[in-house]
Write a structure and sequence with these properties.
- This protein is mainly alpha-helical.
- The chain is 57% helix and 4% strand.
- The chain contains six helices and two strands, in the order H-H-H-E-E-H-H-H.
- Strand 1 and strand 2 form a beta hairpin.
Length: 187
């Protein structure tokens, strides 16, 4: 499982470039996923998890709910900054780690997406009090609909990072991924 690639085949600089691009792209994909599958009820979304986190870190409620207007639609700017930052940081991590340990790409990245969902939404954020209990049977807990949206949304999110990672890495380097022999018949 922890088999490393040949150090001569790793392309870290390219992984950083591709990770940044994949992070921005994947944040947009995750936004798109949440249009047909909103992860929270309107009441729970009045203060969304990024806003709640910012308030826990000391930002005022008014500041965390600051809106910008685009095309006469108000959008929560700080939620967007957190959303894009989260996506970019995880995409950078994923793309760099993929250069060393290709197993992170299991199921085209979707296994890592599930791992991130479990770690963030079921463990860390509930323990911090940023989101409610992960148990739907607990009053006020996360719902089955939220689990459905977030679990599958995280899988699609990481899959979009993997699609960008593989395509751009291979185009930039003119090589297959580090674990694929250069003389392989199929890549």
């Amino acid at each position: 499982m922890f088999v490393k690639t040949d150090a001569k085949r790793r392309r870290i600089k390219e992984a950083v470039i591709v990770g940044f691009i994949g992070g921005v792209f994947s944040a947009i994909v995750k936004f798109g996923w949440e249009v047909p599958f909103p992860p929270r009820t309107p009441e729970r979304d009045a203060t969304n998890p990024p806003q709640q986190l910012l308030e826990q870190l000391g930002m005022s409620h008014d500041m965390s709910h600051t809106m910008i207007t685009f095309n006469n639609n108000e959008r929560p700017i700080f939620s967007f900054i957190i959303h894009f930052s989260f996506a970019i940081v995880f995409a950078l991590f994923y793309c760099i780690v993929a250069e060393y340990w290709p197993k992170i790409k299991l199921w085209q990245g979707m296994a890592f997406g599930l791992f991130v969902w479990v770690a963030a939404h079921l463990v860390v954020m509930p323990l911090m009090g940023t989101v409610p209990s992960p148990f739907p049977w607990v009053e006020g807990g996360q719902t089955w609909s939220e689990h459905f949206s977030e679990a599958l949304g995280h899988m699609v999110w990481l899959w979009s990072i993997e699609i960008v990672r593989r395509d751009l890495r291979n185009r930039i380097t003119h090589e297959p991924d580090a674990e694929v022999p250069l003389d392989a018949k199929f890549r």
